Structure formats: C-alpha cells, structure tokens
Amino acid sequence: MHLHLTLAGLALAIGAVSAQAAQAPIRIAIGTQDTTINCAAGGLLIRELGLLEKYLPHDGKYQDATYDIEWKNFTSGAPLTNEMVAGKLDFGAMADFPGSFNGVAFRDAGKQSLFISVLSGSTKGSGNGIVVPAASPVQAFEQLKGKTISVPFASTAHGMLLRAVAAQGWDPDKDVKIIAQAPEIAGSALRSNRIEAHADFVPFAELFPNRGFARKIYDGSQANAPTFHGALVDAAYAKQYPEIVTAYLRAGLEADRLIAESPEKYSELIEKVTGIEAEVNYLFHGPLGLQTRDLTWKPEYRAAVATSIDTLKLLKKTDRGLNVDQFIDDRYIRAAFQAEGLDYAQALANYAPAPLVANDAVSGQPITDFKRLAQIWVRGEDKVRHYASPEAALSALAGLEKEGKDIRAIYAQAADSGIKLLANQAWFVSDDQGRLNAFLLKQQADTYAQAQGGEVLDFTAASQKRLASR
Length: 470
Hints:
The protein has 470 residues and is of the alpha+beta class. The protein is globular. It has 19 helices and 17 strands.
C-alpha cells in the first residue's frame, strides 16, 4: 500500500512538472542594433511599436503558449554574435559582413545560424562611406594614399574600404595605414583632426557630415559592391519554432510598411530612441533614399554574403568557407510574405528605390522627373517639402530663411549616381540656363562641367547665385 501511494505520488509529481514545463513561456530573445538605423525594421520599430505580439501564434501547438520577449541592444554585430553563439539570443540583426562572421562563428562552435531576411540595402553599395575632417584638403579617395584611415574592424565598412583600396591598385599593408576605430571614437577624432580619414557603416558617413565636423569623400556605390543589413536566427531555434520565425518577419514587414507610409514620423521615433537626427534617418529611409528597404534575397545580396566570407578569409578571421546556399534560408521570409498576402516574386524582381508621389511645393504640380528632385525639411513641420529642381529649392530656401524658419535639412539627388545627398555638403554644376545639377564630389562635378559645360559651385556659392538671379 505504501509503495502504491509512493508511486502514485511520484506520478502526480511528474505530471505536475510536465504541466509546468508545458506552460513555461517560450523565450524570444532578439539582439538589435538601434544606432545602425537600417536594422530598424528588424528591431527598434518592432520593439517600440509592439508589433511582434500581433503576429505570435496562439493556435495548434501554441494554443496554450505564453511568450517571454527579450530585447538587447548592441552598437555592433560582433558582441551580438557572441551572445547568439552562447545561446543567450535567438535572433540578431546586422550587416552582411558581421552577419557572415555570425555564420562562421556558429559553425566553429558546432552550431548553425541562418540568414533569414534582408532588412534594408543597396545593390550598388550606398550606405557605407568614407569621411575626412571638415577642414581637410582631401576631396577624393585617391588622395588618401599614404594616409591613415580608421574603420571598425570586421565590419561591412571594412570590406568596402579593402575593395576601394584594391580598386586603386594599392597594397593595403603599404600604401595606406588602416587602423581599428569604433564610430564613437572616430567622431571625436575627426572633430579634433586626430585622424586623416574614417570609413564607416550606416549611418555615420552621413551623420558626421550632418553634424558639421566631417565631409563625405567616398560613397560605397563607387565600389559598386552590394551591401545590406539583415536578420539572422539560431537554426536550432528556427527548427523548433518555425512559426515564431515567420511571426518575427511578419512584424518586420509591417514595420517596413509603416516607415514607407510615414517616413518623417518614424524618422522622428528613431531619433527619440537613438539620438540620431531624424533628417539623417530620412536620408536612408525616406523616398528615393540612400538605401532601399527590401526584405527579399536579391542575387546581389547573396553575392555580398559570399564576398564577405571571402574577405573574412583574407583577414584570417576564418580559414574555411561557408556554404552560402545553406546559410541563406529564404523559406521564412517567403512564408511571411504569403501570410501577409504579398507577392515575394514581384518584390524580388523590384529594384526601384522607395517611391515618391508628391507635388512641387511652389507650383503645386505633380513631380514626374525625380533626377533633379530637391527637398527641404523645416523644423517643426511634419512633412518634408518637395521641389522639382535644386534651383527651385534654393529659391524657396532663401525665402524660408528670411521668414526665420529653422531648416532641418535640404536634400538633392546626385545627377550621376542618383543617390540622395545632403545638399549643403554637395557640389553643383550651373549650366547656361541656370539649372543646377548636384554631385557628391568636386571631381564628379568637374568631370560633368568639362563634358557638358557649366560652372562648378559649392552649396554656398550655388545659393548665392540663385539669390542673385531672383
């Protein structure tokens, strides 16, 4: 009798433990990079807007599930990867280069991670860039031979810098001195002229010039090397909870849709959380921005991963390759698209930048040619003002300043590459009809002026010339 009671009690205890285990919350631990603003649709926006909770499953095997959602923010991909490999995080968002290192680190630990989605990117390479101190005489990358260039090591910007050096035919060990430097250190070094140049990832090649102490002299698109930020997951976690992985990506799709609909509003939210100015966030996330928010695995992004892995081998960060076809797994993002009623194949084939539907702020007429688009963001206004040409924007700028308006930013589209520029950092070519064409670099403007005719002007001179012609 005593034995029977003991066994019965043991069975009850085991049942209680099993029930408790069944009811234990499912952990969803997500590593974000808030200041790497192109990860926003995979982290900051999902967290701040509570989007993940909307999509988590509560049927089938998840009928009685509860969830423990954990968020942890990082300033770079390497420490995020360390915690993923250690089993402290299930998801992570980072760029192609550190993302590839994530795959290598998992493999070296006898585990596997999966690159499951792109979040934002540029098939041409915009996003990474190189800056010099504002007072530097350097106007182009080729003038950096023999100079010291800092860069966050093992970052996507590091890969861009090595490609730029190779394109010049330079020896990276002899013709330039490349040193490791995090963005927060580089900012103060640029301010005090303690560094000759700095290469960095999103958003620092635009953030530092926007703050007035640096000039951008190289854009990643000049290397024509695709770059992106994306989301990764622990493969074992994805196998156990595929529906949660799809839910996370559905939340990312909603975040992407929201910022497309209201780029100014969510650029403000990103500033509130990170301190990175909304005008810089808009430069990336707004219509016709530096990068295109794109959650599909375009061939160029797959190639970027392969290139990153090769670069890791070159840097002796790994001595083995990584099977890109196994590492990149698009099943979950395809499932997320399907669940949202979206056409993945159509999105995969779409290379257009985030579109703009707008009227000219002066004439009220629809803008149809975006090659010479210019925009002004007045502080305190909810929406950016759009202009059909740089000369129209500069004329309007003079009037706004006369009214005492605080100008948050003025943008122009580069006449050659089409990338969005901070106009106060740009160079312009004025033709004989007074039309202005914008360029990132003085040498690009010089080349255009020699071929097409016209006068090369910096932003101040272009503004003054426009004011004089009124």
